[in-house]
Amino acid sequence: MKKDRVILGIDPGTNIMGYGLIHQKGSTIEMIAMGVLKLGGYSNHPMKLKKIFERTLSLIDEYKPDEMSLEAPFFGKNVQSMLKLGRAQGVAMAAGLYRDVPIFEYAPRKIKMAITGKGTASKVQVAAMLTQILKLKEQTEYLDATDGLAAAVCHYLQKNPSTEGDSYTGWKSFVTKNPKRVKD
Which of 11, 67, 105, 147 is catalytic? Predict the structure, then answer.
């Protein structure tokens, strides 16, 4: 595992996409940036997806991450919401793949467990723990930003990321590992 790397974490969403970037230097990490992309002003779902793709590309171009960590969609009862969330995650992944950034995917419970030690932790508990881990001076207004940051820190904490989460190094890798998600 590389000892000096930048990790981009993304919490995909169709109303708010959270992101966080950390820099690993040896065995220490520090936050580079975190924030949100607000999508509530767009009523057109394809336009929201375009904005997610563009913002993810701009983050990659600005910060040059070595790896990207995404929170995987959780399984819920509302199929329409899940479909939209999966699309949001997909376009964020596409942006990373477009720039040849290796992608790692973690379940929400796994991220919460890595940060707080409890897979059922609340967003507030995750944010509070990240404030301690990264020695943050202030908390963000949006918990989606700390969720994105948590995805990055979770990836950093994995000893062997390729066996802990799903990783993709390009479109071919994604298709090989997800044949049922690709239609002819």
Answer: 11
Q: Is residue 184 part of a domain?
A: no
Q: Which one of the listed residues 67, 105, 144, 147 is annotated catalytic?
A: 144
Active-site annotation holds for 61: no
Asked whether residue 78 carries a pLDDT value surpassing 60, the answer given is yes
Active-site choice (30, 62, 66, 71)? 71
Query: Is 164 annotated as catalytic?
Result: no
Domain hosting 159: range is 4-176
Is 11 among the catalytic positions?
Answer: yes
Number of domains in the chain: 1
Q: Are 142 and 127 in contact (CB under 8 A)?
A: no
* Position 117 in a domain: yes
Each residue's pLDDT tens digit, 34-52: 999 999 999 899 999 999 9
Could you tell me the pTM of the whole model? 0.84
CATH classification of the domain holding 107: 3.30.420.10
